[in-house]
């Protein structure tokens, strides 16, 4: 059942926040789509920091990491417009209306998104709407979750001996299920690393379809919960046990999944048993 929509919530910056905003020339409003990366403020680009420091209005996602809003000057308006699977979320149309409303009033609007705006971030819809309204829009890229996961776990998504391509797919269609038009036989290529965004709730179907498409059930898999945040946890194991691994991590936080033989190289130094990592503690289970 779709979650109930919610309204944007204005947030006051009680601590931190930049000082007086730099002067900028008067003119028409504009929108900057900014990628906030996985949550660590130190992974923001310099251009992202400059955009936040000159914003009049910031519309930010629920998954924005602690400390990132500290780069916004104190007089800016900050509105939480987060969208979360299975939870009350702002409607996409309402978010776009706010961007248009503030930009038409001559404001510099920053639409602050976790990860990278152009990877499963609805940026295409927002850019299309803004261009249709005649509003200038710029994109500042961020570190997408797949690359943040690779760095966090110390694993390479490509490997000369195992994987010569990487594919990012969504595990969540408009209807809350796996997309109907994915080519599972093609996705089951053993020489490709798959990274599945928003695939927690569809993990059992995902694993079954990949195995049905010809992928070995023993193919290494990784699942990461709350990537880049204090609650980050990891699971590693074979594809066949992915649904159980996701069950251990839970669905309360966003979950990212990676599958492929390239992950095998990263796991050689670890015990063969699947692992759930709670911060610095590894909890093993038999499967």
Automatic annotation (TrEMBL):
Residues 30-242 form the Tetrapyrrole methylase domain. It comes from the Bacteria. Keywords: Methyltransferase, Porphyrin biosynthesis, S-adenosyl-L-methionine, Transferase. It is an enzyme of class 2 (transferase). GO terms for molecular function: uroporphyrin-III C-methyltransferase activity. Residues 1-29 are annotated as: Disordered. Residues 1-10 have a biased composition (Basic and acidic residues). It holds the Pfam family TP_methylase. Signal peptide: none annotated. One of its GO terms (biological process) is methylation. Its EC number is 2.1.1.107. InterPro entries: 4pyrrol_Mease, 4pyrrol_Methylase_sf, 4pyrrole_Mease_sub1, 4pyrrole_Mease_sub2, CobA/CysG_C, Siro_Cobalamin_biosynth, Uropor_MeTrfase_CS. Gene3D superfamilies: Cobalt-precorrin-4 Transmethylase, Domain 1 (3.40.1010.10), Methyltransferase, Cobalt-precorrin-4 Transmethylase, Domain 2 (3.30.950.10). Pathway: Porphyrin-containing compound metabolism; siroheme biosynthesis; precorrin-2 from uroporphyrinogen III: step 1/1. Belongs to the precorrin methyltransferase family. NCBIfam families: cobA_cysG_Cterm, PRK06136.1. This is uroporphyrinogen-III C-methyltransferase.
């Amino acid at each position: 059942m779709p979650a109930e929509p919610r309204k944007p919530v204005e947030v006051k910056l009680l601590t931190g926040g930049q000082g007086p905003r730099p002067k900028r020339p008067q003119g028409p409003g504009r929108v900057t789509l900014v990628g906030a990366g996985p949550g660590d403020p130190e992974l923001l680009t310099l251009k992202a920091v400059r955009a936040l420091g000159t914003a009049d209005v910031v519309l930010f996602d629920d998954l924005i990491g602690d400390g990132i809003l500290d780069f916004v000057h104190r007089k800016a308006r900050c509105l939480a417009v987060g969208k979360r699977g299975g939870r009350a979320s702002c409607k996409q149309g309402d978010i776009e209306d706010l961007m248009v409303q503030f930009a038409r009033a001559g404001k510099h609007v920053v639409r602050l998104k976790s990860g990278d705006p152009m990877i499963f971030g609805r940026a295409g819809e927002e850019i299309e709407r803004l261009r249709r309204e005649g509003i200038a829009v710029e994109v500042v890229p961020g570190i997408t979750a797949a690359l943040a996961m690779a760095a966090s776990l110390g694993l390479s998504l490509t490997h000369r001996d195992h994987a010569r391509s990487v594919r990012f797919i969504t595990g969540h269609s408009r209807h809350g299920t796996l997309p109907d038009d994915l080519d599972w036989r093609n996705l089951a290529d053993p020489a490709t690393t798959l990274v599945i965004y928003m695939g927690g709730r569809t993990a059992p179907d995902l694993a079954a379809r990949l195995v049905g498409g010809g992928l070995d059930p023993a193919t290494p898999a990784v699942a990461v919960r709350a990537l880049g945040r204090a609650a980050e946890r990891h699971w590693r194991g074979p594809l066949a046990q992915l649904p159980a691994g996701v069950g251990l991590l839970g669905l309360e936080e966003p979950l990212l999944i990676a599958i492929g033989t390239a992950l095998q190289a990263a796991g050689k130094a670890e015990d063969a048993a699947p692992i759930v990592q709670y911060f610095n503690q590894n909890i093993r289970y038999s499967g």
